[in-house]
Every structure is written in C-alpha cells, then in structure tokens.
Fold this sequence. Notes:
heterodimer, A: seven-stranded mixed sheet, 9 strands, globular, B: alpha/beta, 32% helix
Amino acid sequence: MTGFKTVISLAVPLLRINVDTDTIIPSREMKQISKKGLSDGLFAGWRYLNEKNRILDPDFVLNDSRYQGSQILLSGDNFGCGSSREHAVWALHEYGFRVIIAPSFGSIFYKNCIRNGILPIRLQKNQIDKLVDNTITIELKSQKIDKNIDFDIAPADKNMLLLGLDDIDINLSYSNKIEEFEKSDRKRRPWAYLT
Amino acid sequence: MVAKTLFEKLWDIHTVCNLADGVDLIYIDRIFLHERTGSISLVGLDEAGRKIPNPEKVFCTMDHIVDTYADRDDNTSMPDGRNFIETTRIKTQKAGIRLFDIGDNQQGIVHVISPEQGIILPGLTLVCPDSHTCTQGAFGALAWGIGSTETEQALATNVLRLEKPKSMLIRFEGTCSPGVTAKDIILHLIGKHTAFGGVGYVVEFSGEAIDELSMEGRMTLCNMSVEFGAFSGLIAVDQKTIDYVKGRQFAPKEELWEEALNSWKDLNSDHDATFDKEIVIDANVIKPTISWGTNPGQSISFYDPIPSPEDFQDSNLKSAAKKALSYMDLKAGDFLENLKIDAAFIGSCTNSRLSDLRRVSKILKHKKIAPHVRAICVPGSTEVKRKAEEEGIDKIFIDAGFEWRESGCSMCFFAGGESFGFEERVISSTNRNFEGRQGPKTRTHIASPETVAASAIAGHISIATKMDADQ
C-alpha cells in the first residue's frame, strides 16, 4: 500500500445514515477470492436500475456527471456498519474514493479503511453539510480540511495511512515481547493453549 | 485493587505491551475462519509467503457459500461458489488448520459450532473475519469481528494492535414477560437507542433478565451487539456458562479444567467498577419486537403502529424513516399485523440453535403454515440438525410445511444463488433487514423464531400467543 497523498476533489454527498457494507458491496457482487474487480459492484443496488444489464439509475448521486472522478464521499452516521467484509473498502478504493467523511463509522469498516489507503474522517453533521458541492482539500499530515477545519485521527492510524505500513511487519518487530508474553501466559493460563 | 469492568479484565489479561499513542498489543487466543472471507486471508498470506505459526488455534468452517439443500456437494447455487470451497479446503490443509468441511458432522455456522465444540471459552480472545463474532461474548470472552487484512495479521503474528474501546453497561431491571425472548430484548434495545448507539463501545449486558437467559439466549443477545454498532458484547461468567462449556470437545479437561475454573471465577465486573456509559432498561415493558424498516434500529413492539417520519426529531432519522417506508412498502400508522408475508425463514447465527427449534416446534405442532407462504428452516449446525431429528423436531417442521435444510448461513443473505425474490416480504429470525440483504428489493422483517413461526401459520405478521404454545 502506498502512502496517503493530499486529496483535492469535489465531494459526493450520500447523506444517509446507516449505509451498511451490504449496500456498499452486495454479497452477490463478491464473486472471486480477490481484492480486485469489485468497483463495478459498488452500491450495485442503488447504482443500477437493472443490475444484470448494468443500466445506470440517473437519480443515484454517483451517476451524476458532476461527481465523476470524485475522490471524497460525504455520508451520515454509522457509515460502513454491518458485515465485516473488507470488500466494501476495496470496492470504494478501486472506484477512486480516498476520503470518506461521516459523523461516525462502523468499527470494523473504519479499521479496514486505515489498512487500505482510505482516510475516514469523523466530522459533525452540520460541518459535513457545509462541504456539499465544494471542491475541498484534505491534508492528512496537518489534519485539515481546506486548511481551516481540523479533524482527529489516532496517531497510529495516521502513520499507517501516511507511510502505507505493513501490519504484519510492525507486529513482528515485537516478536520478543510476544514470546515473553506467551511464556508467562502459558504458566498463568495453561488451559487456554491447545498444544 | 482498582475496581475493573469485565472488559478491562479481559483486555489486561491479553495485553502483551502498551505501544505509543494509546495503542495496545493484544494477544489472540483463537481464530475462526469461513470460506467467504477466511479464504481471502489464507490466499493473501500464501501469496506473501507468510507462515501461520500456531495453526492449532485456528479453526475453519464452510457456512457462508455452501448450499443447504439435501445431498449438497461442492457445487453451489451461488455462481463460482465452488472456487471458495475448494480454495478454502486446499489452503487450510496446507496450513494445518482444522476444517469443518461439507459432510463433517461438526460442520455448521461458525458462531454456532465454536461454542458447541468448546472452542470459545470464558476469558479467551477470539477473532474471525465475520461481524457476528460478538455472539461468543456470551461466554465472558472478548470476541469480535475483523477484516480480512486484520485476520492475516492475527494468523501470522498471534496479536493485533488496538486502541482500547470504551465500555458501556446495559442493565436490565426486572424480568421479561412470558413469550418475550432474547431476540425481543436486543431488538427493543436497538429500537430505542438506534443502530449506532453502541459505536465505539464494548457493551456488557447485565441484570436479572440476563441472568435468567439460557446460554443460547445470551448468544442471541450478544450476536446483535454489532447491530447496535458496538465493538462487541459481553456477559459475565456464571454457573450456566460453566455448565455449558464442561465436557465439550476442545474445552480443558481434568487438572486443566480445575485451573480454568479458578481463572474464570473473576470474570465479572467488580461491584464498584465504573463504565464510560450506562443504560438502564426496564425488562418488564419489553414486548415481542419486530423490525419494520431497513436497519435494526427501525424496530417496534408488535402492538405499536408503524412510525411516521414526523415522529422523529432528528432530521437524519426522519429521512431514513421516509426512505425505509418506501422501500418496505408501508404506511405510517398501519400495524405490522396487517402485513401479508410471502416467506418465513428460521436460521442464522442469531436464532438457529436447538433451543430455538424446540420452542418453535411447540408452536408448529399439529399446525400448517398458510398456503401462500414459503417457509424454510436451516439448523445452525449439523449437530443441531442431528439432535433435532433425534427428538422428532424435523417431522413437526416438515408436517407444518417448512423445508428442512442442511446447516449453513443460507438465506440470511443473498450471495447470488438462492433468494426470496423481488419485493417479497419475509419474516426472518436473522439479524439484518438491510435493503437487498436477502435478495434484490426483498423486504425483510427480523423477529424472534417464535414470531416467525406464528407469522408463517397466520400468513401475515403475528406473534406466538400462549395458546399456540399450549396446544
């Protein structure tokens, strides 16, 4: 995963609450054991009038010509709730989204974003409303939207995104500590180990 | 000693070390996989040339994609499902992971078979690339769903780096009325406090109404913690927990059992522990509860009218209600009882265990489902199915007009194979009433298995009265 770069883009307003991962990528669109080839199924239930023939629904915001190529998605509370499927994030990323702004996120989805180069920003609803139809600049390093709105992100998550770090390598750098833990934990909780 | 919540105790037991910026390295005791999202983790690790150091703590089942028809094999009604099944089989074998394959008498839905076989134990951490992993918090364990990439991390390193979630206590005062089940309790909670009321929290359920629940009821309750937005759900260990676990295949035996019992004594929140948030709910007022809309927060008592968008102060909830009424083809002010159903489904990691099927069989005995209703029962595990058949429960379902299936997730969601059909109205013992969850434009009402059975008989949404159960 490459590091997160500054994003300048018009934001797509999908201002609904509880947009679940089944809606972001329906199970029927997850056809292969692959992290790729998923953007075509993104929001399939809302994006197509006829899913089989892929006839676009002109009323769905993503199909509005103004928003083609947009990298920022605005939404409501609990975006990405429901199923743990990481395919939701892979599909959003492949479609071109790099930033999602919502008042709150499903917790598994939030973590999946951090690991796949999408910046999830928590922002109050009234602030999100003001971003609609503006071209906005998101800078992760300074944690600012348009240089004047601050947003919070955990330092570890920020680092993951900025540097595109590998989780497994980070964990393995603590191998000694993990081994020490296991050694003492086996004495403390012998019943918890299966060998 | 500082007073601690159950969650804090579990967190501390598993903290390998504190890293910078509030992140802890948390030790993972068990990992469960299934062919849908586990396969992708195994392939990812293999492609990266990473090894799984402790395959003995990893288990895998076939539940999400496998068909539930009798005489099923590797072919699936979901297009290309066979590839998921075959790949899972090859990769688990290569890694030395125990697989509960098609035809294995221990196969079943991950969150049904893990407790059934004593894989989840009090005091453990368990992760699975499946959001309903929180089910297993019913055992006083910290169990939660993760993504496929995080699963690769846990498989390869036995740890995850996590920020500690906040803690919430949900205390139920008093006891539930007869006929009110664990499913009604959790739908009531989410209906009152929204589908995102628990975001950022590990929630602990407590109180007399929870003490009274069976372990299977507690699993139903914890199962839908994720539908409340929570990181996970928890219930303290008591004698029921211990009695359930004892003697199961992967549970500790003899001396180790005694040591385990000693460790588990403390798996409850200290009397004076403080939570970041507390909610108190009067259990006496809970009625049979059913979803009307397109997220589990849109749930009401059977006796209440379907709400109008104007009933909601919050503009987001208002517009969500408007969209849900349209999708579900409902009129505000109408009653759920007036809704004719096309199908009824009993199954899923929420409500497909033996006690669920036993209770439903009492309602279905000597009854027939309405002629226009398609009704399906999918037992949660092959073991549940076998035991139900020993008790003759399968015959009661079949005589009433239900299809009796092999175990799996089945039509809890639509994966491109079987579905209930366009704009069909389904009453379902599952956990998600999202748009399109059970099929394109399918309209799902989630409810207790009792309510599903009573509705299947009536042909419209109905609840099991005491009379039904007594006959």
